[in-house]
Structures are given as structure tokens and as C-alpha cells.
Amino acid sequence: MEKLKKYFMRNKVTIMVIPNAQKSIKQWKFNIVIAFIILVALIVINITLLLNTIISKITSDNLTSENSQLEIDLLMTQDKINLLQNINSNKADEIKQLKNTLQSSNDFMVARLAEMEQTQTYVAQLVTIFNKETNSDIKAPISRSFNRSAEATQEQNAGLSDDDLLLSDINALITNDEISVIIAEQAQAYNDLTEKLEKQLSYLDARPDFYPTNGTYSSPFGYRRDPITGKTSMHNGIDISNKVGTAIFAAGTGIVTFAGYDGNFGNVLIIDHGYGYESVYAHCKTLLFSPGDQVEKGTQVAIMGRSGRTTGPHLHFEIRYNGTPINPLKLLDQ
User: Fold this and answer.
1) Alpha-carbon gap, residue 195 to 175, rounded angstroms
2) Helix (H, G, I), strand (E, B) or coil at 80
3) What is the pTM (predicted TM-score) of this model?
4) Given the DSSP bridges, would you call strands 12-17 and 26-31 parallel, antiparallel or unpaired?
5) Alpha helix (H) ranges present in 153-299?
6) Counting beta carbons within 10 angstroms of the beta carbon of residue 3, is it exposed (0 to 12), middle (13 to 18) or buried (19 or more)?
7) What pLDDT digit, counting tens, does each position of 291-304 carry?
């Protein structure tokens, strides 16, 4: 070991630099250990530089590839942006056309709404008069109010841009589509009202509340002393006395279901009014209609007489509800 150490200490390495002919040669002598260390250091440095060069090359290639891909993506994105701009431009034109169309429709519907509001007031007045005249309880149709908040904000939109104003107008028009819904609801309400009025008018026309004849009210409805037998019995109608030949009228609109002679009642006419009502006209002299005939309220249907069992000329008048006799005065007094 000591010999090896002396060997390295005695042996040296000379480094010479030979310049051009005009300059002198330069040389340096180094111990072989130091020279070896310097050589190893140079090798390490060269390897490091080589590795850095390789890594830089790879990184550069990767960056170049990524940059190329980004350029392609950028071009594709720009194409998409151009396409979207074209679509947006076309949609803007469509929106403007739609706005004009909606505005015209809106103006028309607002005018119709105003007309319907006037009509509603008029109909409500007519229904009130009808209820008073007929003692009915029909409700006038009530439509929900139109929300005019969109119209009220037009002054607030004065400072908006054209695009924002366009969007605001379109939104207002969409909101105003409520008008068409209200119009449809109101039309349905009027149809329902018409049906109710027709049914009520039909009922009122059929209801046997028209006084059937002129004369003296001579016998009430209910238990009474029979004028012929003297016994207490149920009297299912009222008697109205007058002279023979006095006109007898239909108490309500209906269909004649019986017209003929019926024992103690003599000549009898029965009218079915519907809604569960029937009216009976007894002791008549002459019957003017036959079974199946349609008669209107207030039409003369018979002539007063004294047929059947009676003490004098009079009309025995009954009203039956669902087959049960009721006091006629409950309807006639109304």
C-alpha cells in the first residue's frame, strides 16, 4: 500500500497547450491522482450535459407537439365560435321577427280583453236583473284579472341596451300570453253561464206557478169537511170558483199526459212539467188538448165547468211534486 502511494506521488501527468508557431508552448504538470479526479469530473460534467441535452430535446419535442395540438384545437374552437356567431345572428333575426309577431298578437289580445271586460260588466248587470226578476241565484262569471306589470315597466326599460330591451320585450310578450288563457277561461265561463240560464229559464218556464184561472178562492189545501159527504177528508188541491165558461190556463210549460173523464173529478187534464212537477185541472167543461200535446205556460187548456161530483162550477187545481200532492199556494204565492 505504501509502495502504491509512492507510485502515484512520483508519477505525474503533463498537459501541454501548443498554440500557433508564433507563441510558446504552455504546459502544466499534475499529480496523477489530481489528473484522474479532473478527468472523472469532466466525464461527469459531459454526461450531465448530455443528459440535459437529451431531456431538453425530448421536452422541446413534447412542447412542439403540444403546441401543434393547441393550434389545431384553437382553429377548431375558432370555427365553433364562428358557427355559433352565425347561429346567434340568425336567432337574433328570428327573435326580432317573433317579437313583431308577438307584439301584433299581444295588441289584438289586449283589445279583445278590454272588450271582454266590458262584456263581463254588461253580463253581470243582466244576471243581476235576471235574478231580481226571477228570484234566482245565478252567479255572474268572474275572470281573474290580467297582470299588467309587464306594461308598467316599459318606462323602467328606457335605459337598457337594444339587446336587453329586446329580451325584456319578449319576456313581457310571453307574460302577456296570459291574455289568451283568460279569454279561453272567460269564453268557457260564458258558455257555462248560458247553460245555467237556459236551464233556469227552462225550469222557471216549467215551474207551475201561473194562476190557472180567475175566480174566488173557495177551498184550501189540506184536511177539510167535504161539502157533499160532510166528513173530514184530505183535499189534495185548492178550489177556485167562477161561472161556467171561464178560461183555465196551464200553470207551467209541459206535456199533457192525461185528458179525459175521471169519475168524481169529471173532465180532467194533467200536465207533466218535468223537474218532478205535475198539475191537475178537474171538473172542467171542455178540454182543449190531448195527451202528448206540448203546452206553454199561460196557454188556455180548458174551460171551467161542473163535471163530476161538485156543488157548483169551479176548478179543482192540484200540484204534485214527485207524485205527492203539495199546497199549490206555496208556488202560486211566489
Assistant:
1) 32
2) helix
3) 0.53
4) antiparallel
5) 162-175, 178-206
6) exposed
7) 999 999 999 999 99
